[in-house]
Amino acid sequence: MKIMSWNVNGIRAVHKKGLFTTFVEKHKPDILCLQETKAEQHQSEVDLEEYEEYWNSAKKKGYSGTAIFTKDEPISIVLDFPADILKKYKLEDKYGDPNTEGRVICAEYDSFYMVTVYTPNAKDDLTRIPLRHNGWDKAFLEYMQKLEKKKPVIFCGDLNVAHTADDLARPKENDGKKGFTKEEREGLQNFIDAGFIDTFRMFTKGNGYYTWWSNFGGARERNVGWRIDYIFVSKKLKDKIKNARIHPSVMGSDHCPVELEISL
After folding, report:
1. Which residues are catalytic?
2. Separation of alpha carbons 217 and 17, rounded Å
3. Which residue in 92, 86, 40, 85 sits closest to 66, CA to CA?
4. Which residues lie across from 5 on neighbouring strands?
5. In CATH, which superfamily holds the domain spanning 2-262?
6. Which one of 11, 45, 240, 246 has the lowest number of neighbouring Cβ atoms within 10 Å?
7. Structural domain boundaries of the chain?
8. At what angle do helices 182-193 and 137-148 cross, to 10 degrees?
């Protein structure tokens, strides 16, 4: 099974460039998870006959949003955080409620859960660090652990954090800045400490492997980037993983897709 995740930064924009359908036809993922769709399903002109589509769009028009395109119909689909987790964690701040921004979709299959997530970023002035550190990251981890009690979990998406110094081209210059604060990195480390596996790092060590580049200064051409898009799996699935890749040559967004090949 091939699972792919891509922050498209506007599915309509990528499709208008003629790059979305050609990407799907070339790579033929069994499950494709998208972030930052910036559209509602009826606004998308993408029509892929082989796939069922499940969308979670933000209440705010043209903002955020996630989607799952899948060849096999899931048993169930759940959007956003469950009510019990929302009661426990304060997710709303001065910027609004991220639980209304279409950031999480959970698809249940026979032998696993598939979750796509678009994590809120910390903002340039770090004013959303309290939301990330005390709310979102803890709530999402608890949600994944809750699912894991029933079936193994695969979760993927734009987590808006580089985990280690190897995950961005300029760690010294960006230490303490958005996406590379100790709070955000700790939040991601907590998933690893809980047993979830960063699949890309099973196969590839070191730096130079990135999934997002600034649109300024020729950053992508010079590969001055960040690895902030991930596919994690429950430890129970480790022996089923065949490969994990990044696809920096796929254009259309400021992010590139990531891939997991797994026997399920």
Report:
1. 118, 158
2. 22
3. 40
4. 33, 258
5. Endonuclease/exonuclease/phosphatase (3.60.10.10)
6. 45
7. 2-262
8. 10
User: Which DSSP helix (H) or strand (E) runs through 189?
Assistant: helix 182-193
Contact 175, 143 (CB under 8 A): no
Give the CA distances from residue 4 to residues 20, 40, 209, in Å, rounded to whole numbers and listed in that order.
Answer: 13, 21, 16
What is the identity of the amino acid at 176? G
Closest to 103 measured CA to CA, from 38, 49, 47: 38
Which of helix, strand or coil describes residue 13? helix
User: How many residues are recorded in the chain?
Assistant: 264
Reading the chain (264 residues) residue by residue, the pLDDT tens digits are: 999 999 999 999 999 999 999 999 999 999 999 999 999 999 998 989 999 999 999 999 999 999 999 999 999 999 999 999 999 998 999 999 999 999 999 999 999 999 999 999 999 999 999 999 999 999 999 999 999 999 999 999 999 999 999 999 999 999 999 999 999 999 999 999 999 999 999 999 999 999 999 999 999 999 999 999 999 999 999 999 999 999 999 999 999 999 999 999
